[in-house]
Amino acid sequence: xxxxxxxxxxxxxxxxxxxxxxxxxxxxxxxxxxxxxxxxxxxxxxxxxxxxxxxxxxxxxxxxxxxxxxxxxxxxxxxxxxxxxxxxxxxxxxxxxxxxxxxxxxxxxxxxxxxxxxxxxxxxxxxxxxxxxxxxxxxxxxxxxxxxxxxxxxxxxxxxxxxxxxxxxxxxxxxxxxxxxxxxxxxxxxxxxxxxxxxxxxxxxxxxxxxxxxxxxxxxxxxxxxxxxxxxxxxxxxxx
Amino acid sequence: xxxxxxxxxxxxxxxxxxxxxxxxxxxxxxxxxxxxxxxxxxxxxxxxxxxxxxxxxxxxxxxxxxxxxxxxxxxxxxxxxxxxxxxxxxxxxxxxxxxxxxxxxxxxxxxxxxxxxxxxxxxxxxxxxxxxxxxxxxxxxxxxxxxxxxxxxxxxxxxxxxxxxxxxxxxxxxxxxxxxxxxxxxxxxxxxxxxxxxxxxxxxxxxxxxxxxxxxxxxxxxxxxxxxxxxxxxxxxxxxxxxxxxxxxxxxxxxxxxxxxxxxxxxxxxxxxxxxxxxxxxxxxxxxxxxxxxxxxxxxxxxxxxxxxxxxxxxxxxxxxxxxxxxxxxxxxxxxxxxxxxxxxxxxxxxxxxxxxxxxxxxxxxxxxxxxxxxxxxxxxxxxxxxxxxxxxxxxxxxxxxxxxxxxxxxxxxxxxxxxxxxxxxxxxxxxxxxxxxxxxxxxxxxxxxxxxxxxxxxxxxxxxxxxxxxxxxxxxxxxxxxxxxxxxxxxxxxxxxxxxxxxxxxxxxxxxxxxxxxxxxxxxxxxxxxxxxxxxxxxxxxxxxxxxxxxxxxxxxxxxxxxxxxxxxxxxxxxxx
Lengths: 240, 578
Known about the structure:
The complex is a heterodimer.
Chain A: E1 2-9, E2 19-26, H1 33-44, E3 63-66, E4 69-72, E5 85-88, E6 95-97, E7 100-101, H2 104-112, H3 132-137, H4 155-159, H5 166-176, H6 184-192, H7 205-209, H8 216-237
Parallel strand pairs in A: 1-5
Antiparallel strand pairs in A: 1-2, 3-4, 3-5, 6-7
Helix pairs in contact in A: 2-5, 5-8
Chain B: E1 5-15, H1 19-28, E2 34-38, E3 54-55, H2 66-76, H3 83-102, E4 117-125, E5 130-136, H4 142-156, E6 160-163, E7 165-173, E8 176-184, E9 190-200, H5 221-228, E10 233-234, E11 239-246, H6 256-259, E12 263-265, H7 273-276, H8 286-298, E13 309-312, H9 318-324, H10 326-336, E14 345-354, E15 358-359, E16 365-367, E17 373-379, E18 384-385, H11 397-417, H12 431-442, H13 449-463, E19 467-468, H14 470-487, H15 501-525, E20 534-535, H16 543-546, E21 548-555, E22 558-565
Parallel strand pairs in B: 1-2, 1-9, 2-6, 9-17, 15-18, 19-20
Antiparallel strand pairs in B: 3-5, 4-5, 7-8, 8-9, 10-21, 11-14, 12-13, 13-14, 16-17, 21-22
Helix pairs in contact in B: 1-4, 1-11, 2-3, 3-11, 5-15, 13-14, 13-15, 14-15
């Protein structure tokens, strides 16, 4: 079949402003949008720039706005989309070139939640024990591939770029609900901050955007509840 | 165009941020200043695509011994692995799995809270008697968890990262390594990293084949650059085809699917592996199953006579499929529109793993043609050949390899880098890289890199894949020679500096062409069948002539072949039956 695809192009070395360009390429209905982008790049315009690597939804390189919604280009098929297919860079980050955005801020926020196991006691000789139920508690948020689809699809993030954003909160959740982790105090500050979880207005765009099917909004809600519980238990301990 | 040059000095530079690179960085940074240079953001590395598990004889669910793991690895590799290296790997596997757990890796758990283990191809108890549960796993995303966990630890340890820097040159001067030159993809600037130690962890090169499980970025950069600098490549004729790639797409369906009870069926609905490997059946090693699939197809027993077979999970408990194999279930639903709980999955062998690569010793030091370590130069992971996989890698052993030998290399660097001075560099260390970029960036030859790559992938698939024959290999060699000369006329239309991904792809194609050339030359020379190298014209293993590693060195624009002995310690070669 013939596919029409409109791509938002911008090379700051050359172009005064972004512009739209439409391409017509041959494709199969079962082709990924990434395949269509490759056909454009390999047959029509080599300068088209986008990130990609694994091409099956596990590396998180190719998140972009496709027909107005965040997707991984390798995980959405031509037959699922109306034409012309429109492709733009994710919103909220500076565009470096065509579909490539500057992810620096995104990874700074990731780092801000201390995304690593914090455990005080020395490790045992063998593994730390963890029941299957305790392991299940944080399973959903271990799936995150840091693609940015949730954060750049979040209206609260568009309104205020200082907002930590769903992806960083998902990472915090992954450790807060891991029975082996003891970093609660280390992470509470940044999560409870003015730019922390309370900026989330439960809009669910993040959950809809997540290519890994993580219940992002639910995870954020659990982090909010955890902060509330933590405040209550702290205030109850404070002598009156 | 003269690009700006930015200079850095570190004790150690790690190139590549998959499991091997990050593990090396973690260890090395305990003793010296380390920078990690990677063409992708670290979490995009292909370790993240590994699914089924990491093998270690923990005995958490049934009795197991590292000696059995060692035997399986040696036999699986058709007696070509170096047994001293395999012994070290299988012993240390146990410790590194506990290490990963201590770092926070979320393994699946047994009811009593230990790391859970599942069956995997070629892994047995009591030296081949029956399958054993050895693969430690996290659903079907074990590699993702390893990659994330190691990156998390690197952040905790404040390792310096240079993300989206493309390796252009490794500076090997006067018999030692003094650093690397890389291209900053975002700006187009050249960066010189002067270092006492360089560890390459640049992964494999499956993109030389049309159907592959490998990411687009797996183009063998480190291997090809060292080859051009006169470092030999070892055992390049051995390339593994994983039997269960999604039909046409090549996307991997983990062996864990068969570990959980899935079976392969041909067009007649027969469980054909019963005929090829009566004991292990669908859990036989990958090389044997890939050959069996090709045989079934060539004898007309593909599905509807076509070039694929079925992986059948429909008899499994749907809970097992949903919970232990969630990602592959999602892939099958997304890309094929099928529900694997109710319908069989169309699969075909997919180019998966390079057993060969840069020769290294037990400390991950790179060896020259005489077998001597090149001071300051290290390699680990798929780009290296230590050799633990020999002629055919067992499932789960790539993850073992990257963490064990990444750690060995990192430790050696931490111990030795401090005592060394920074090596001196030639006057213009970036000259070669600059020249290559200039040539590619100003060519007006009109050749398309994409077209050459597609032709290369087709010819490799046709003649250098699961079965090989002298005539076909010669045809491939002639085609590659032509493609290599056409490559000199490749034109890059994008002349900009920032994110010039067209230029990157042209560079990567150059690496693939060189490695395809070496692979084919080595495959033509080895007149026997061993592991993944299967010559229809020489169907038997020939230990008298060929129980040896091959070394391929670039000499006067030709591939010169030599050999080195196999280290045999505990297990004498036997006939390989399953």
